[in-house]
Write a structure and sequence with these properties.
alpha+beta; Cyclic Phosphodiesterase, Chain: A; four-stranded antiparallel β-sheet; 4 helices; 25% helix; 32% strand
């Protein structure tokens, strides 16, 4: 079995805006720079033969370069926050790409993802962090924005057994070439 997900990678210029946020919240487990990403579809634990089917289905997804903007900070968990994130400004190209990943996953027999797509970059897992401290942190670091970047491909990642937050391994990029070389 292998735990897989698809995502957009975060370029260094954007990561440089996220890294300074990673302080001042006691008890937070900060995500390492190489593990910053925007999840498109979590596949979960799948057998090796299903992983091959996933690769084949992903190879058929077209990718036209489009802009991504990070703005705002938030949390998942409400009264018991467990994740701190930087938001991704919604866009039609991002919604379409995510929908194609969902469709590909369903075509190969994976269960539908019932959660609403909330594009974000996780910056910390919160565990035992006090709720008030999380909201104070968000207020103190708002407004947040990072330089826009162009996404021209997506990546299939595997997640190693851990308590969440990486390390992740880039298994394959789609398209399997550097799109910038063609411009």
């Amino acid at each position: 079995m292998i735990c897989l997900f698809t995502a957009l990678e975060i370029p260094d210029a954007v990561a440089e805006k996220l890294i300074p946020l990673q302080q001042g919240l006691d008890g937070a487990r900060w995500i390492e720079r190489p593990d910053f990403h925007i999840t498109l579809r979590f596949m979960g634990d799948v057998p090796e033969d299903v992983a091959r089917d996933i690769d084949e289905a992903l190879s058929d997804i077209p990718v036209e370069p489009f802009g991504i903007e990070l703005e705002g900070l938030g949390e998942f968990g409400g009264k018991r926050p467990h994740t701190l994130w930087a938001g991704v400004k919604p866009s039609e190209p991002l919604r379409i790409l995510q929908g194609r990943h969902e469709s590909a996953a369903r075509r190969i027999g994976l269960k539908p993802d019932t959660r609403n797509f909330t594009p974000h970059v996780t910056i910390a897992r919160l565990g035992r962090v006090e709720t008030a401290a999380v909201y104070n942190f968000i207020r103190a670091n708002s407004p947040f924005a990072a330089p826009a970047f162009t996404a021209g491909r997506f990546t299939l990642f595997s997640a190693r057994a851990s308590t969440g937050g990486g390390p992740y391994v880039a298994e394959k990029r789609y398209p399997d070439r550097d799109w910038e070389e063609e411009e």
